[in-house]
Design a protein that fits this description.
Largest sheet: 2 strands, antiparallel
Structural class: mainly alpha
Radius of gyration: 19 Å
Strand content: under 5%
Number of helices: 15
Length: 290
């Protein structure tokens, strides 16, 4: 495959990818911070959120590698039924265990609340799969950075590096008034950062074990979707129009603890070197090699 080679990109593909992802997302999304709420800032936010796959595709092309081979991971679905069960089931399991613990300790949940509409759950999932964590992120973080970093570090370290960069990439969303992140309390912010790190390990495990970006996309989308299944009691979260920091802290700490136990279980069983029981993807894999 022939193209214009850029020596610096050849030598530093992961750094080039990170720089490109940040530049695309931040430049396009930043104007939304100065706009009134309307369709325009939301369009900028969601277009900007495609920074990771756009950057991954650009770096792949600039290196003269096969963009189609890299992109093929997005449709790799033949990975074994157990991984589909894991992708859909683990996020639901985390929320389920969190709910039981909160109920047992008298936390702000109402297990008598009606279940969410299946239509709403499906809509939220499809939204997450396409423009809120799935297609707009995973082809970059897991589908590009993970295999390159797998070649240089053990899989746990690679996942944690991605987790830190991934968290920092979200910074504009904390500064854009209409974005949900801007309304996070301090406890939410700390819990969110820890959750990102833990989720990066869980997603790294799923990707390394299957070589499928699609599985990572589904798992990521289900994590976002499962949050609406947590039966929080609104009257305990907000009282007299005042957000109850203690209630939020209880929910956040409980859910982070459950997620931490899942991540530690994965590390203990699969090992930090590969987070998998199979040969894990490296740079050669996403170039179309074996």
């Amino acid at each position: 495959m022939t193209t214009t080679r850029v020596p610096w990109v050849d030598d530093h593909p992961v750094v080039a990818f990170f720089v490109g992802a940040f530049a695309f997302t931040w430049v396009i999304s930043a104007p939304a911070a100065f706009m009134e709420e309307s369709w325009t800032p939301w369009i900028l936010i969601y277009i900007g959120s495609f920074g990771p796959p756009v950057s991954a595709a650009a770096v792949t092309w600039l290196r003269g590698d096969d963009v189609r081979a890299w992109a093929s991971q997005i449709v790799r679905w033949r990975v074994g039924g157990i991984w589909w069960v894991a992708a859909f089931g683990i996020p639901i399991g985390i929320v389920g265990v969190t709910t039981v613990i909160l109920w047992a300790i008298g936390g702000p949940v109402d297990i008598g609340r009606p279940l969410q509409s299946p239509v709403l759950v499906a809509v939220v999932f499809l939204f997450g799969l396409t423009v809120s964590g799935g297609l707009n992120e995973e082809p970059g973080w897991r589908g590009f950075a993970q295999p390159y970093l797998n070649d240089r570090y053990d899989a746990l370290t690679a996942s944690l590096i991605i987790g830190v960069v991934w968290a920092l990439w979200h910074l504009p969303y904390f500064l854009i008034p209409i974005a949900p992140h801007s309304g996070f309390t301090v406890v939410n912010q700390i819990g969110w950062f820890i959750s990102i790190m833990l989720l990066s390990v869980i997603l790294g495990w799923a990707y390394n074990s299957t070589g499928s970006v699609l599985i990572a996309m589904v798992l990521h989308a289900m994590v976002n979707t499962a949050d609406i299944l947590l039966p929080l009691a609104p009257d305990q979260i907000v009282i007299d129009d005042v957000i109850q920091e203690t209630a939020i802290a209880t929910v956040t700490i409980t859910q982070v603890t459950v997620t931490l136990l899942v991540a530690l279980g994965i590390i203990a069983y699969y090992g930090r070197e590969s987070l998998a029981r199979v040969e894990i993807p490296g740079a050669t894999y996403i170039r179309g090699g074996n």
